[in-house]
Backbone:
């Protein structure tokens, strides 16, 4: 496959994933703002920080409100990570690798772009926000469905998967890191309703607020939440899950090409860190330190793969 | 000017090729047809079958309007057309080989020397170069117009990088989706094997040194090119890589593409990049679209470039007027398909005639394409004609003129039923060790009532083109 195509597939999938994550972040913020009686500024601030665009946001806005944050994260094209920008970039990459995609997958991306262009053309009325977020999630789900349903499991699929899971791991790790302090046992955490909301918000931003209850029973416990999002290999947005998938895709590439590179060792090293006995070990070492290291490792892995498969 | 209507000439009954369609049409509910028109547009948008119009603001992506009434040719009409096209394509390749080698036709005085020597489309770099299998122009789109039951004329030979074949394929695909029962009722010859034929055809002209199955790739200028959709479409349908200049470089004398497993040599390159941009070392040094060194690899016989560089000299509008002589010179026979009479404004007598009859003629730039920079005398305003007359007087050699032909019409669906509109036809020809023409082509239609300009960049649309299996 052309290196440029590998690059296009990798970034196309990263941006589709990013668009969906942005919608989930705003959704979680909205939910918390609705359920909290006090000011929602803190919550909207942490949404922007989790999205990794705090600096750019402050260049344009002074206040963190539902309106400014939703506008910046969903429809502002000067923000390269906004849903509109992400879908547009994903589609441009899709156009570039058009020959690598099935017709269904391409059409799903193209339709998502058309629908987003329509939906996000004019400023968002706060009352429409739930409907818009829902639509964004639908479109990305539709792309993913077409992709999984029709694509051949070959190198094209592998580079796409790698893009998806590098982005997703980055997103989950960032959300955890922005909120890590509410998970720490040292902070007063007697299960106040405030803490409960915060925890639910974390889970909601990775679409895990329902599944959590099935796995850990109804009660929110910080260690369980961290365990779920970091180590639980069955949770589709956990770091362990993402890395198992990246390792698997890289493994397929190694078999197909008959060559192993440095990135194969790198991914094993990170997987090793995610195979620790229990979440307690991570808390003992420091959750924040663990996450910062993980985010750095994850970025380096992406760059290393691009270099070793010649698409940097 | 009364035009020949291909469905109902001069108000009489329906012509035979349209009989089966007419029978079906009579049973259709007009409201349902209008609805289908909307469906067609949605299909095209969803698929991303779009093109860019240069100089159009905020129009990065436009749809070429599609009309759901097919343009129908009988098997017999088609056979005659293909004979004429084959003859023409043979002559075009023979002309190119001659012009880049012995130049017999110039020595024989059949074409003025200055038309070649002073022509930008003539590439001195190609002198003495014989492409693999001796084929210069591999993919040709011959523009044909009709003026009567048996009158077909060639308007233009597109021998460089003709586009539009993806529309031929997608139009058929769309028609079959919209009206499956219609294809049960009328037997239409298939066009969908074009990509396979194209691939085989390209494989058949692989370089001599290439043993085994050649690696083929399509070279595109990139996603911002107006025909990018088609480049991707063809690469995908052929199952070959779609490459850009930045993916390619010379490795051990061969052109190779950068893959996830290192550089892989390419044997046949179907390029959709113009000559001038092909090789910055040979042609335009500022071009980032091409591959530095590709011309050296080409001259060394390491790669086939389709179409060959320098084929533009054969479809140049100044050369066009000599096509009847060219065909006779190389095939020894009269042209089966006629040319449209053409005045070369470089010749004083012709210029005088053109200047006196500007209101009746179509005047075109010799090097122009896509319907830009032309004057359609009868429909132009007085002011437009005056502006154009000034340009013509300043640089007469830059123009040719042709009579305004009564292009045949074919009905399109408008509010309130069917209405005739002018059409042309571009069949696609593949040349390797044999000549193949898929039965059909791209019918372009002027959507404005009375308009003769069918170019998509000027508001033209397209139709599915049927050749009947009779």
Residues:
């Amino acid at each position: 496959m052309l290196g440029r195509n590998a690059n296009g597939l990798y970034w196309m999938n990263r941006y589709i994933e990013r668009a969906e994550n942005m919608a989930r972040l705003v959704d979680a913020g909205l939910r918390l703002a609705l359920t909290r009686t006090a000011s929602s500024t803190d919550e909207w601030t942490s949404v922007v920080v989790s999205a990794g665009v705090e600096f750019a946001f402050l260049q344009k806005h002074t206040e963190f409100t539902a309106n400014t944050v939703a506008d910046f994260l969903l429809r502002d094209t000067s923000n390269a990570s906004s849903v509109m920008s992400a879908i547009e970039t994903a589609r441009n990459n899709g156009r570039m690798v058009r020959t690598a995609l099935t017709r269904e997958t391409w059409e799903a991306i193209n339709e998502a772009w058309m629908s987003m262009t329509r939906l996000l053309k004019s400023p968002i009325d706060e009352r429409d926000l739930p409907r818009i977020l829902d639509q964004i999630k639908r479109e990305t789900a539709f792309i993913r469905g077409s992709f999984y349903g029709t694509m051949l499991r070959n190198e094209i699929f592998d580079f796409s998967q790698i893009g998806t899971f590098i982005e997703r791991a980055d997103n989950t790790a960032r959300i955890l890191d922005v909120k890590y302090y509410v998970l720490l046992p040292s902070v007063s955490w007697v299960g106040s309703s405030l803490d409960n909301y915060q925890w639910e918000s974390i889970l909601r931003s990775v679409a895990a607020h329902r599944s959590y209850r099935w796995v850990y029973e109804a009660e929110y416990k910080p260690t369980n939440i961290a365990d779920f999002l970091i180590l639980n290999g069955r949770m589709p947005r956990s770091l362990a899950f993402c890395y198992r998938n990246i390792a698997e895709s890289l493994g397929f590439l190694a078999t197909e090409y008959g060559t192993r590179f440095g990135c194969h060792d790198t991914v094993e090293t990170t997987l090793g860190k995610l195979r620790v006995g229990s979440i307690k070990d991570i808390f003992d070492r420091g959750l924040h330190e663990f996450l910062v290291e993980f985010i750095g490792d994850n970025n380096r892995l992406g760059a290393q793969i691009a270099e070793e498969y010649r698409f940097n | 000017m009364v035009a020949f209507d291909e469905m109902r000439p001069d108000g009489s009954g329906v012509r035979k090729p349209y009989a089966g369609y007419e029978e079906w049409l009579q049973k259709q509910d007009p409201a349902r047809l209008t609805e289908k028109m909307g469906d067609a547009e949605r299909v095209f948008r969803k698929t991303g079958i779009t093109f860019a119009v240069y100089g159009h603001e905020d129009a990065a992506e436009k749809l070429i309007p599609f009309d759901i009434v097919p343009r129908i040719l009988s098997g017999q009409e088609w056979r005659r057309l293909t004979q004429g096209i084959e003859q023409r394509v043979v002559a075009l390749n023979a002309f190119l080989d001659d012009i880049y080698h012995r130049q017999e036709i110039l020595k024989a005085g059949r074409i003025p020397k200055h038309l070649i020597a002073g022509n930008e489309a003539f590439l001195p770099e190609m002198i003495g170069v014989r492409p693999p299998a001796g084929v210069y122009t591999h993919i040709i789109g011959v523009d044909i117009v009709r003026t009567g039951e048996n009158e077909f004329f060639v308007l233009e030979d597109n021998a460089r990088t003709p586009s539009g074949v993806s529309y031929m394929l997608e139009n058929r695909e769309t028609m079959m989706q919209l009206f499956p029962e219609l294809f049960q009722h009328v037997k239409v010859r298939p066009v969908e094997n074009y990509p396979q034929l194209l691939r085989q055809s390209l494989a058949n002209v692989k370089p001599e040194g290439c043993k085994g199955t050649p690696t083929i790739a399509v070279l595109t200028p990139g996603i911002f090119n107006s025909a990018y959709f088609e480049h991707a479409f063809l690469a995908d349908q052929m199952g070959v890589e779609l490459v850009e200049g930045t993916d390619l470089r010379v490795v051990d004398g061969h052109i190779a593409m950068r893959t996830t497993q290192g550089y892989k040599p390419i044997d046949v390159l179907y390029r959709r990049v113009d000559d001038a941009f092909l090789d910055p070392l040979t042609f335009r040094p500022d071009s980032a679209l091409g591959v530095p060194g590709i011309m050296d690899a080409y001259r060394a016989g390491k790669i086939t470039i389709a179409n060959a560089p320098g084929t533009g000299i054969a479809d140049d509008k100044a050369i066009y007027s000599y096509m009847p002589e060219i065909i006779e010179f190389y095939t020894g026979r009269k042209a089966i398909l006629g040319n449209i009479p053409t005045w070369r404004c470089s010749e004083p007598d012709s210029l005088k005639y053109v200047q006196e009859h500007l209101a009746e003629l179509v005047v075109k730039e010799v090097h122009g394409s896509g319907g830009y920079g032309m004057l359609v005398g009868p429909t132009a305003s007085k002011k437009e004609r005056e502006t154009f007359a000034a340009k013509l007087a300043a640089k007469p050699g830059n123009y040719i003129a042709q009579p305004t032909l009564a292009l045949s019409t074919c009905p399109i669906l408008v509010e309130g039923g069917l209405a005739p509109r002018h059409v042309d036809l571009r069949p696609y020809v593949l040349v390797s060790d044999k000549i193949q023409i898929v039965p059909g082509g791209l019918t372009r239609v002027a959507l404005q009532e009375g308009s003769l300009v069918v170019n998509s960049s000027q508001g033209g649309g397209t139709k599915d083109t049927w050749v009947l299996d009779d």
Residues 55-59 of chain B have pLDDT under 50 and may be disordered. The first helix of chain B runs from residue 19 to 26.
